[in-house]
Amino acid sequence: MILEHKGINIFYTDQGKGSAIVLLHGFLENSTMWNTFIPTLAKKNRVICIDLLGHGKTPCLGYVHTMEDMAIAVEAVLKHLRLRKYFMIGHSMGGYVALAFAEKNSTALKGLCLMNSTYEADDDERKLLRTRANKMVQSNFENMVRMSFANLFSDVSKRLHNEKFESALKEALKTPIQGYIAGQEGMKLRQDKFHFYKLLNCKKLIIIGEKDSVIDKTKLVNDTKNTNIQTIIFNEGHMSHIENELECQNAIMHFIE
């Protein structure tokens, strides 16, 4: 399904009936990343998946997609569907978008799950890496995407889940160069949202991969001690929906109960 928004079409899917769950994909992903989760979740729930700006079947809206820009597009879809209350689960960049969304729509959220994601802003080193990647991708897109994506999996994990890894990589390569650059530029502009997330009045969960090279696992665990933010740690890396598929599904099912 599509919704016209600021001159472009936002693509989304809407399946099942019941309590609403909004699923937001990460950078170099799209709504297809949730395909193995939807049949289980949609048995008793209404599941909405949205292609974020410059990803999947949603085109770009400019050369910088801030997390707020993406959140406004998400908000447009949910208003169009006349949804009032829902759970929101964001993978990686989708978690950043979910936090930006929550800042303006906190009362609509029953729960917010950061899946292999964080409330932290980019540090200077991460910003520099994003800037370099955006320069390199302009002349060597495919190799950059392959390298970026491969770094999200351990060597063992790539072999163990080779078919799903290749399928996810195929989807990543469909991302337009403009979408890649705009997403990276937007992620560089994020502010730290720990205090906001800590005070957010809904159920909260952070799903962490033990071997995740993108997220500072130790800091997240220490920060959230003695708060009402629940953390779950799986034994693999950044792609819990592939590397710890069943455990991740179970954690989400438990979270939305």
TrEMBL record:
The keyword Repeat does not apply. Signal peptide: none annotated. InterPro entries: AB_hydrolase_1, AB_hydrolase_fold, AB_hydrolase_sf. Residues 20-244 form the AB hydrolase-1 domain. SUPFAM superfamilies: alpha/beta-Hydrolases. It comes from the Bacteria. It holds the Pfam family Abhydrolase_1. GO terms for molecular function: hydrolase activity. Keywords: Hydrolase. This is Alpha/beta fold hydrolase. It comes from Lacinutrix iliipiscaria. The lineage of its organism: Bacteria, Pseudomonadati, Bacteroidota, Flavobacteriia, Flavobacteriales.
